[in-house]
Specification:
Layout lengths: L8 E5 L4 H6 L1 H10 L4 E6 L4 H6 L5 E4 L20 E4 L5 H8 L5 E3 L20 H11 L24 E4 L11 H13 L4 E4 L5 H11 L6 E2 L5 H9 L3 E5 L2 H9 L3 E4 L5 H4 L7 E4 L15 H4 L3 H11 L22
Parallel strand pairs: 1-2, 1-4, 2-3, 4-5, 6-7, 6-9, 7-8, 9-10, 10-11
GO molecular function, one term: ADP-heptose-lipopolysaccharide heptosyltransferase activity
Organism: Streptomyces griseoluteus
Keywords: Glycosyltransferase, Transferase
Length: 338
């Protein structure tokens, strides 16, 4: 990667996942508007390069990743020090120090730089992720609007235009609703005449197959292995509905304005949920905060039944006119309390 030539550089660190990237789009858009003559470079995992460039907010990507959600080393930054470095990664000294090691002219971070530095805005644990980073930038004179989260329409054709997209996966087990419940939702929607496709990321083929086994979704409507971002973006942008847990594809639905039903567990939707619009439904059971990166499914997530998700989905979908005999043998509503 090389920054755009003959332009002062802005380096932004947000080396996290797809959902984190998309939740950061309003802040990135504020940075882009504030520095139109600068080359804006985003440090994030290389697998998210296409997604980052598709936001239209950055000129280039600096590949940067570390195990888990740790702070990556950035010393492979090419060329002169950035004119400005902005830490959108977290609120600790580790991410601040990774940027400071490049000796930028200016550095914006939640963590204090030391005696004599301007105090950063306070970190608020109860703040929505999109609002947090816009408020952070605004404190430094960079206006940003948390509602400015929409992505440009994708150029790729959809692999299943008009379908309901069911996505059972998530990076952490804590945010994975049981596949048999996703299957119950998929089966009921198919019985109502809706086409359902089931997607999964890399390493989630077993989850996809488990949903298919319990719902009757045919093999041709299973999208396994992890779609390239362009195809995934087009699929979501032209879908009738997205049903998923709190993971990247949900944020992609928010970004494209696609109707969505999102199942929340360890983290409430007030922190990571969709915009407050009728086309988005966030299902959540209040309870003690959980670990969004835990290895056991969150108890609150397990308290959401399949019937609740079915009703939320049907409320967002137009009825399908009957074209013949009902598909399948139907599902008893009582059997949806899984």
């Amino acid at each position: 990667m090389t920054p755009p030539p003959d332009r002062p550089g802005v380096l932004v660190l947000r080396a996290l996942g797809l959902g984190d990237l998309l939740a950061g789009v309003p802040a990135l858009r504020g940075i882009r508007r504030a520095f139109p003559a600068h080359g804006v470079v985003l440090a994030l995992p290389p697998a998210l390069t296409d997604a980052a460039l598709a936001t239209g907010t950055v000129d280039a990507v600096l590949p940067a990743e570390a195990p888990g959600r740790a702070v990556p080393v950035l010393t492979h930054w090419p060329g002169p020090p950035p004119d400005l470095a902005i830490d959108l990664h977290g609120n600790g000294p580790e991410s601040r120090d990774a940027l400071a090691a490049l000796h930028p002219r200016y550095l914006l971070a939640h963590a204090h730089r030391g005696p004599g530095s301007r105090p950063p805005p306070a970190w608020r644990a109860d703040e929505h992720e999109r609002a947090r980073w816009c408020r952070f930038l605004s404190a430094y004179g960079i206006p940003a609007d948390p509602a400015d989260l929409r992505l440009p329409p994708p150029d790729d054709p959809s692999p299943a235009a008009g379908a309901v997209v069911v996505h059972p996966g998530a990076d952490a087990v804590a945010r994975r609703w049981p596949p048999e419940r996703f299957g119950a939702v998929a089966r009921r929607l198919r019985d109502r005449g809706h086409r359902v496709v089931v997607t999964g990321g890399p390493g989630e083929d077993r989850l996809v197959q488990d949903v298919a086994d319990s719902s009757g979704v045919p093999a041709g409507d299973l999208l396994t292995g992890g779609l390239p971002f362009g195809a995934l973006s087009a699929l979501v942008a032209h879908a009738a509905l997205v049903v998923s847990g709190d993971t990247g594809i949900a944020h992609l639905a928010f970004a494209h304005g696609t109707p969505s039903v999102t199942l929340f567990g360890p983290v409430p939707p007030t922190l990571w949920g969709p915009p407050a619009l009728p086309r988005h439904r966030a299902l959540w059971r209040p309870g003690p905060p959980g670990d969004p990166h835990g290895t056991v499914t969150d108890p609150g997530l397990l308290r959401i039944g399949a019937e609740e998700a079915v009703l939320a989905a049907l409320a967002l979908l137009p009825p399908v006119p009957p074209t013949g005999p009902p598909r399948g043998d139907g599902v008893d509503a009582g059997a949806l309390h899984l």
